């Protein structure tokens, strides 16, 4: 591995809002095991991602990756639209 190379985190999620300019809100769901009871529980996180061309629509399945902070809440950028909601 090359020096100064950073492993970027890539996440898949669903777009829940595209009302902002060049920004989308992505809902990321994960399954975690309860520490005491052992039951698997769904947990979700909303992340804001930078969408330079405003290509995302609500309901799209997208891939996002971490980047430097672009604003107070936005530290991810759009990599690609995996599945469009219109299909």
Give a nutshell description of this structure:
Keywords: Ribonucleoprotein, Ribosomal protein, RNA-binding, rRNA-binding. By secondary structure, the chain is an all-beta fold. The chain contains no helices and five strands.
Description:
It is a single chain. This protein is an all-beta fold. 0% of the residues lie in helices and 53% in strands. A five-stranded mixed barrel has the order 1-2-3-5-4. β2 (23-33) and β3 form a beta hairpin. The chain starts with 9 loop residues before the first strand and ends with a strand. The model has no long low-confidence stretch (mean pLDDT 92).
Largest sheet: 5 strands, mixed, barrel
What integer is the average pLDDT? Answer: 92
String of helices and strands: EEEEE
- Total strand segments: 5
SS summary, helix count: 0
* CATH architecture grouping: Beta Barrel
What is the CATH C level class, in words? Mainly Beta
SSE blueprint:
Elements: E1 10-17, E2 23-33, E3 40-50, E4 61-66, E5 74-83
Parallel strand pairs: 3-5
Antiparallel strand pairs: 1-2, 1-4, 2-3, 4-5
Core attributes:
single chain; 87 residues; mainly beta; OB fold (Dihydrolipoamide Acetyltransferase, E2P); 5-stranded mixed beta barrel
């Amino acid at each position: 591995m090359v020096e100064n190379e950073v492993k970027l985190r890539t996440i898949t999620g669903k777009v829940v809002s595209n009302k902002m300019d060049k920004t989308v809100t992505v809902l990321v769901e994960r399954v975690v095991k309860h520490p005491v009871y052992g039951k698997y529980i769904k947990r979700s996180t909303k992340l804001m991602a930078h969408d330079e061309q405003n290509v995302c629509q609500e309901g799209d399945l997208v891939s996002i990756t971490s980047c430097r902070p672009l604003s107070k809440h936005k530290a991810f950028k759009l990599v690609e639209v995996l599945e469009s909601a219109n299909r």
